[in-house]
Design goal:
Double-stranded beta-helix; 6-stranded antiparallel sheet; 2 helices; mainly beta
């Protein structure tokens, strides 16, 4: 039996009881562990991917390379009772327990760990016209009772949901960590101002309408992406570059 819990906001605690279980985690994320008697857990680098068959793993690796959804993983196998701990660069950790058939869409760089009851895949969204994020996303779908996912967030997460309110949600693709529910559409606002460096910096957005219920986790730290289409070299839709201080 496997259980995921968040510890002190910044750590993932995995409790294993019995033997024969395993999980996948971000490579190098292990920070400590304890068990009864001798060490009863092992780490193995995942060469291709978490898919069960070699053929599917190879195809999955090609898909991740093509879409940029690279996922460096290690397999942690448990052979008895143990508690192990995982973290990544002091990022906040969120644990979600997926229902059977429920899917979470998450950026690969934000995946910390998931159990074997999660089926991993890459799905094309058909959007990503300007942003480097949004063309494809990693997905994890619950296939059993122990479908746990641990997600990394830069800073305290913001959670938005229109599942019960029927409201319209918008989010910067470079700040979106993951969502559960319907996929978003992309709303673009590109005009002549973008080409002369007068863009607001918010030229495209993910949008979930009232007909697309979802719960979205957003981080207060935007990734750098986008394409340079302006005269002054500023990227449309990406976070602004740090200005040099003049003394």
């Amino acid at each position: 039996m496997i259980k995921f819990e968040t510890l002190n906001e910044l750590c993932l605690m995995i409790t294993a009881t019995g033997g024969g279980d395993y999980v996948f985690t971000k490579a190098g994320a292990f920070i400590g562990g304890e068990c009864y008697g001798g060490k009863n857990y092992t780490f193995t680098k995942v060469m291709l991917g978490p898919e069960e068959s070699a053929g599917r793993a190879f195809l999955g690796q090609l898909a991740r390379r093509f879409t940029g959804e690279n996922l460096p993983l290690m397999k942690v196998e448990f052979n008895g009772e143990s508690t192990t701990y995982y973290a990544n660069r002091q990022q906040h950790v969120i644990v979600y327990h997926l229902e059977e058939g429920e899917t979470i869409s998450v950026e690969s760089e934000n995946i910390l760990a998931f159990t074997r009851d999660c089926k991993y895949g890459v799905r094309f969204l058909g959007q990503g016209v300007i942003s480097q994020k949004g063309l494809a996303t990693s997905t994890l779908t619950g296939t059993g009772n122990e479908a746990y996912v641990a997600v990394l967030v830069d800073g305290n997460p913001l959670v938005l949901s229109n599942t019960y309110t029927g409201s319209t949600l918008e989010a910067d693709p470079d700040a979106v960590v993951c969502w559960i529910g319907e996929d978003p559409s992309v709303k673009m606002d590109v005009s002549w101002r973008n080409f002369i460096g007068q863009s607001s910096g918010e030229s495209y957005m993910f949008e979930w309408s009232s007909n697309s219920p979802a719960t979205v986790i957003i981080q207060p730290n935007e990734r750098s992406s986008g394409v340079d289409i302006s005269m002054d070299g500023r990227r449309s839709g990406s976070k602004p570059s740090t200005q040099r201080r003049i003394y």
